[in-house]
Design a protein that fits this description.
By secondary structure, the chain is mainly beta. About 5% of the residues lie in helices and about 50% in strands.
Length: about 1100
């Protein structure tokens, strides 16, 4: 066997046609057309042999000519479709492989060796315009040589399968009289196997011509009767058609050849005066068989290429002194063989086979490209490069001493790897994708280098995995090696999950831009995470860190989900497309551009550092129960601990009530007013979310989630979709009016709303209704109603005076106090007034039946709005009055004018605290009252039937409340007018209790309001307007009063009374106590 180029040819004469190689024993013609023996068909020389060694050649004894000059070769196989080519000297006009070139290298170096006689024919073979392979025949011998050596090389230009090759000839062995074209034909001789040798013996002279090969490529010999066969498979079959004018040939089974792969094999035409001479003359110049690379021997690639040693390892070593390439096929016998590259590079493109193991030592690279089957590969130093798993042979690959594999193309390696304890073995994918399906054993460390991907699918037990380049894909947890081992990531290195798995190995991140790609799988990591550079989590799927870990820089979540379920010391960056989760603790700051999802659906995540959510980020909150905690029945919570640790809200907050993926009931339905503290930040909360993603199910009807921002917390709370609708269902118009304002002004859900809407977030339904009522400012309307009621009550005091004014003292005074209760109605909560008043008047009779007078009054009223606020009104009034009596008939009239002072306070109780407001205003009032009636004596009792009409006008100046601006109210100047008619009667009697005269009395009147029955104000909150009303005492009312007057003396009288008013809308109650004096 021979090889491909070690050195370029020094000089070459390119023949334009056929060549002749001639020595002392052999003379052959070579044609360029087909690359076969034979100068040109039956033109001599074909094949000539001189047994005397004197170079005397008789053209009459040419083995090819005259006659049919049958010598050639054939190759067949498949490249997706079957092909078959054959070239024959006897049919040069129809060769299967055309366009070849024949070049002479006689006497000059080629392929590292020089021979006296040498020529190389080569051609590129195509089929249908597609390149299939190149083929070359290297013909050579020295002048004293008795064998024509032929080295054939085939290099695939595409993947080839089922490749076979045949060399054949029709040997007309005529060297003396009596010889003819018929020959005695044999396979093998003595110790030479029939598969290696086929020859034809002349009938008389016994001269021999044969074909011989001991190449490691699978081969056989055959004898074909006429018509002679050019099919390689015939000769591979070993058939022998016996003696006669038959063809002899060798067939080679070359198997499959991947694109770029080469196969080289060697065979010879042998000659002799008999078969013993022919066999004994083996070798270029005669003299016996070549030695093998045996134990104790040291050879070089040049020895192989120069034909000085067989490419057969039998315990020996091939040592390199310089880089080299060998096309030869090697055999490794049971004793094995060693290649010491010694810092140089060697490429073997031929096959390596045999029952022994091949050992690689020394620095440098051994490149294997053939289809190899030797039993094992031991890499003790340097690198073994391969172009496919088939190049590595069969059996286990052992690595020690830093030895390494390097893949020169995408490939699958099925051989097992053995890395001894304390040893390291390298695997350089060199930019390619390599799948290793065998097991890795031995307890040593595997170092992955180079770009590209190494996929491990075996059941491995190596002690450590050091990824210094490219990626390692683990088909399962077992592929990562022995449990509890260590995985190290260098610069740009990646560990990729090929399935769901639990990783027990520790992971140390030493290089930049290195990390774990879960590749759509869920991975639990029970080993410790450490490192000096940011740990990068990429790929969809979840990586759960269940062991305590740390990183000098932190973790970078680029894609998928990284769950922190133990203590992790380091910063965390969550990129867009990444999710941070877990129920552990992170000791470091967190910056989120992607998604932050505390817990493991649900759960609590603690961060001992600040957390900042950027615009476009998401805070995803699972809500499966009312309290924060881990597991079913709880909700997520982020706890930001540390006095200086701040939570910065931003992006979107997403509330999840159904489809929670972890341990959850998925049945909890929050109601309006339910709130959930989803963030607790010891250092405070800043920023705000731009929006909230509402759940599509699992929420109370007509409700939504809103965010309440507290100084140190973020609260998710369920609020009504419409505050107005909520208040409307409760039947409170003032609250509904404010609800419409809130609905119009509230910001998008999730945003930080400093207005009233923001303060409502987190309140329960009753609290919401109270807050809406409080916000309406109905106490302002209550205050005006109180002024109106005070004016009417004061006029009543004057009217009461007129009943006893005739014949009485002229100067009088009354001091009184009363309490009114106005019940709630459909608009307002109602209110209570506590009034104190003083009146001083003077009468002037004009006749016995006509009297006039004047009075001044002071009234002070405290209004309790029943949680809606308080008001204090002070009224100063001047009264004029008159009375006419004619028998039992009377007419009374009173007019009044006054000034009023208002002071109003209210408080709105919100989820983020109470907001207090103060309003002050001045006002004026006018009123008039006239009543006519008739007295009827009924024994000791008097009955008075009467009808009256009262008119009131109360004006209040504009009011702008002091207090928090978004909830403060503004009112324009308001005027309240009321016209009330009444009809009814009074009954009274007199009795004596010692010196005290008692006068019990009762009255029953029906009143009718002819205008508005209560005060309605136009309020403004911010840019929004609404109406607010006081509770109405009713449009038509029945008013009952009882009173007891006691005349202590002729100057002093005291009274105590109760008044009740009923309407179809509400009730009112009053208790009155008074003292009057006359002078």
């Amino acid at each position: 066997m021979a090889g491909t180029a070690l050195t370029a040819p020094m000089a070459a004469a390119t023949a334009g046609g056929p060549l002749i190689l001639s020595g002392k024993y052999i003379k052959v013609g070579l044609n360029e057309t087909g690359g076969t023996l034979g100068y040109d068909n039956n033109t001599s020389p074909g094949i000539l042999y001189d047994g005397t060694g004197t170079g005397t050649f008789n053209a009459g004894y040419d083995y090819l000519t005259p006659g049919t000059a049958y010598e050639g070769f054939a190759i067949k196989g498949s490249a997706g479709s079957a092909f078959s080519f054959h070239n024959n000297n006897s049919a040069l006009g129809s060769v299967g492989i055309a366009g070849g070139a024949l070049v002479s290298y006689s006497g000059v170096a080629y392929d590292g060796a020089t021979y006296d006689q040498r020529a190389v024919w080569s051609a590129t073979v195509t089929n249908g315009g597609a390149n299939l392979f190149t083929i070359s025949h290297d013909y050579y011998f020295n002048d004293a040589g008795q064998q024509l050596n032929i080295v054939t090389t085939i290099e695939a230009l595409t993947d080839l399968t089922g490749l076979s090759f045949g060399r054949f000839t029709d040997p007309d062995a005529r060297a003396a009289a009596g010889d003819s074209s018929a020959t005695n034909n044999f396979q093998g001789s003595g110790s030479v196997a029939a598969s290696d040798l086929v020859y034809a013996e002349a009938l008389a002279s016994k001269y021999v011509i044969g074909l011989y090969s001991n190449d490691s490529a699978t081969h056989n010999s055959g004898v074909a009767g006429f018509p002679w066969s050019s099919d390689p498979l015939f000769y591979l079959s070993g058939d022998n058609d016996g003696n006669g004018d038959n063809s002899i040939g060798l067939g080679f089974d070359l198997g499959d050849l991947l694109s770029g792969g080469k196969v080289t094999f060697k065979y010879q035409y042998i000659f002799g005066t008999d078969i013993a001479a022919a066999i004994g003359a083996n070798g270029g110049g005669g003299g016996g068989a070549l030695p093998d690379i045996a134990a104790g021997g040291s050879f070089t690639p040049e020895d192989v290429l120069g034909g000085k040693v067989n490419p057969v390892f039998d315990g020996g070593t091939l040592n390199l002194g310089a880089s080299a390439s060998i096309n030869s096929a090697f055999t490794v016998r049971e004793a094995g063989g060693t290649i010491n590259t010694g810092g140089h590079d060697l490429t073997i493109s031929g096959s390596v086979q045999g029952e022994g193991a091949l050992t690689k030592t020394g620095e440098g690279v051994l490149t294997l490209t053939g289809s190899n089957s030797q039993n094992g590969l031991d890499i003790q130093g340097g690198t073994v490069a391969f172009n496919g798993g088939g190049a590595l042979g069969s059996g286990t690959i052992t690595m020690s001493g830093g030895g390494a594999l390097r893949s020169d193309r995408d490939s699958t390696v099925s051989q097992g790897l053995q890395i001894g304890a304390g040893q390291q073995g390298g695997f350089n994918t060199a930019g390619h994708n390599v799948q290793h399906t065998g097991d890795i054993n031995g307890g040593g460390g595997l170092i992955k280098t180079g770009a590209g991907t190494l996929t491990l699918t075996g059941n491995n037990s190596h002690g450590s995995l050091d990824i210094q380049g490219g990626s390692v894909v683990a088909g399962s947890a077992n592929a990562l090696g022995a449990p509890g081992g260590q995985i190290t990531l260098g610069n740009g290195a990646g560990l990729v999950a090929g399935s769901n798995m639990t990783v027990t190995q520790g992971l140390n991140v030493q290089g930049e831009n290195s990390g774990f790609d879960t590749a759509g799988h869920d991975v639990t990591m029970n080993g410790v995470l450490t490192g000096q550079n940011c740990f990068v989590k990429s790929g969809t799927g979840t990586l759960s860190l269940n062991a305590a870990g740390s990183n000098a820089i932190g973790a970078c979540v680029q894609q998928g989900q990284l769950a922190f379920n133990n203590v992790f010391a380091g910063q965390v960056w969550v990129d867009d497309g990444g999710t941070m989760s877990g129920s552990g603790r992170v000791n470091g700051n967190v910056e989120v551009d992607g998604t932050l999802s505390p817990g493991n659906s649900p759960g609590v995540l603690v961060v001992a550092g600040s957390v900042a959510q950027a615009a476009g980020s998401t805070l995803a909150i699972d809500i499966d129960g009312p309290t924060a905690g881990n597991g079913a029945g709880h909700h997520d919570q982020l706890v930001v601990s540390g006095a200086g640790s701040v939570y910065t809200a931003g992006g979107t907050i997403t509330a999840i009530t159904r489809g929670i993926t972890g341990s959850a009931t998925n049945t909890y339905t929050p109601q309006i007013g339910d709130s959930f503290q989803v963030v607790s930040a010891e250092g405070g909360v800043t920023g705000a979310f731009a929006a909230i993603t509402q759940p599509t199910e699992g929420l109370a009807p007509d409700s939504r989630f809103d965010v309440l921002y507290l100084p140190k917390a973020v609260v998710l709370a369920v609020t009504p979709n419409s505050y107005a609708a909520l208040a409307g269902r409760a039947g409170k118009q003032n609250a509904q009016a404010v609800g419409r304002v809130v609905d119009a002004s509230r910001l998008a859900a999730g945003q930080r709303d400093a207005g009233l809407a923001g303060g409502l977030v987190g309140l329960k339904r009753p609290q919401l209704l109270d807050a809406l009522h409080q916000a309406s400012g109905e106490i302002h309307a209550d205050g005006i109603e109180a002024v109106l009621a005070s004016s009417r009550a004061t006029r009543t005091e004057v009217t009461d005076r007129l009943e006893t004014a005739f014949g009485a003292r002229k100067v009088w005074g009354v001091a009184g106090a009363d309490t009114w209760e106005i019940d709630a109605d459909q608009a307002a909560y109602g209110y209570r007034t506590d009034r104190a008043s003083m009146i001083f008047g003077i009468d002037q009779p004009l006749s016995d039946d006509l009297l006039v007078g004047a009075a001044v009054s002071y009234g002070e009223t405290e209004v309790d709005g029943r949680g809606m606020g308080t008001a204090r009104t002070v009224s100063y009034q001047l009264h004029g009055y008159g009375a006419w009596r004619s028998g039992d008939n009377y007419v009374n009239g009173v007019v009044a004018a006054g000034l009023d002072d208002y002071k109003l306070t209210r408080s709105v109780t919100l989820a983020n605290g109470a907001r207090a407001y103060l309003g002050k205003a001045d006002g004026a009032s006018l009123s008039a009252d006239v009543e006519a009636g008739r007295r009827f004596a009924m024994g000791r009792a008097d009955l008075v039937l009467a009808a009256g009409l009262a008119a009131d006008r109360a004006e209040r100046d504009a009011v702008s409340e002091d207090g928090e601006t978004t909830g403060a109210l503004r009112f324009a100047s308001e005027t309240r007018t009321a016209v009330q008619g009444r009809v009814g009667g009074r009954i009274s009697t007199q009795t004596q209790a010692g010196a005290i005269k008692l006068r019990p009395l009762a009255s029953l009147f029906v009143t009718q309001e002819f205008g508005d029955d209560t005060t309605t104000l136009g309020a403004r909150m911010g840019q929004n307007s609404f109406d607010v009303a006081a509770a109405s005492a009713g449009e038509t009312a029945v008013k009952l009063s009882t009173q007891l007057d006691a005349a202590i003396s002729d100057r002093t009288r005291v009274s105590l009374g109760y008044r009740y008013g009923w309407t179809d809308a509400s009730d009112s109650h009053a208790i009155r106590a008074a003292a009057s004096f006359t002078w």
